């Protein structure tokens, strides 16, 4: 029991990429640049959604929540990773590990539910355009957003409690760059089969169920778009939905490869690469995909820039 409590008092050693020291400096530069760009991109979407009245719609309400969630996710993991890459001290306290695990799991769950909500929003916009504002009224949007956040973090509290109460027997070296459930389960010296089954069940609920709802929504959207006689109308509809579908493919593809397999079968090198993609690249791609493919966001950005430069000139 003394050895089991040792990890609690001394914290954990995040090994990260220490087995490849030649990669630490290049990774530090790449991750730092990605983090700054991600903060700028997601911060810009949040600012535009709040500032421009034309973006006060359900779609941009959900998109600003997605950007806020991405900001929280990168801030939860990336600064610790940067500190470990350049500093000698690669430890994280027990409380820090619990907090990191709780936030990362919660935000992952929130995004899964939120992306399915956004798919329903696109379904209502394309398939029920005359009733769109009645269906997606502000109160329903608020309830859907709250449901996403409460569901994600409710599940996270349960998974974090089950994972972090396992006896670790003094093994406090985490072969990762942040605290994650599959890696923490590997440190346990007790039978983890029940918790692994629980993690798998939760993963199915948050990955397979929302993805199925998204695919059903886009099946209806595709049929509705193909009935549009105007080629310009079809391009506009596919362009509006294409950005969301691209985010869905990237996000769910990454998480399914991480969580829908037993922890014992993980390759740590592959897992680290996938986790880095999920925590850094995906939050960076989201604002790029939505701004580059969305005329409304680009128009709002131009109006903001013109307004800022005009006020300075006067």
TrEMBL record:
Locations listed in the record: Cell membrane
Residue stretches making up the G-protein coupled receptors family 1 profile domain: 41-290
Coiled coil: none
Keywords: Cell membrane, G-protein coupled receptor, Membrane, Olfaction, Receptor, Sensory transduction, Transducer, Transmembrane, Transmembrane helix
Major location (coarse): membrane
Homology family: Belongs to the G-protein coupled receptor 1 family.
Protein name as catalogued: Olfactory receptor
Annotated organism of origin: Acinonyx jubatus (Cheetah)
Primary gene name: LOC128315736
């Amino acid at each position: 029991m003394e050895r089991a409590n040792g990890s609690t008092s001394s914290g954990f050693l995040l090994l990260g990429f220490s087995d490849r020291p030649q990669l630490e400096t290049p990774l530090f530069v790449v991750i730092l640049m990605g983090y700054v760009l991600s903060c700028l991109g997601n911060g810009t979407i949040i600012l535009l959604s709040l500032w421009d009245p034309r973006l006060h719609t359900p779609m941009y309400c959900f998109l600003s929540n997605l950007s806020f969630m991405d900001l929280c996710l990168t801030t939860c993991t990336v600064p610790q990773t940067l500190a470990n890459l350049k500093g000698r001290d690669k430890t994280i306290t027990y409380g820090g590990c619990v907090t990191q695990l709780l936030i990362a799991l919660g935000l992952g769950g929130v995004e899964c539910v939120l992306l399915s909500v956004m798919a329903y929003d696109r379904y209502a916009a394309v398939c029920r355009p005359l009733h769109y504002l009645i269906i997606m009224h502000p109160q329903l949007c608020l309830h859907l957003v709250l449901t996403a956040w409460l569901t994600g973090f409710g599940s996270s509290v349960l998974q974090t409690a089950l994972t972090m109460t396992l006896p670790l027997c003094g093994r406090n070296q985490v072969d990762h760059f942040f605290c994650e459930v599959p890696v923490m389960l590997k440190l346990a010296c007790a039978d983890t089969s029940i918790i692994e089954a629980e993690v798998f069940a939760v993963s199915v609920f948050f990955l397979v169920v929302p993805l199925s709802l998204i695919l059903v929504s886009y099946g209806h959207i595709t049929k509705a778009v193909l009935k549009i006689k105007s080629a310009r109308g079809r391009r506009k509809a596919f362009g509006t939905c294409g950005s969301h579908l691209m985010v869905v493919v990237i996000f769910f593809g990454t998480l399914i490869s991480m969580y829908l397999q037993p922890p014992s079968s993980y390759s740590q090198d592959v897992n680290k690469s996938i986790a880095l993609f999920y925590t850094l690249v995906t939050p960076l791609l989201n604002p790029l995909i939505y701004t580059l493919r969305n005329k409304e966001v680009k128009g709002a950005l131009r109006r903001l820039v013109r307004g800022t430069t005009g006020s300075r000139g006067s």
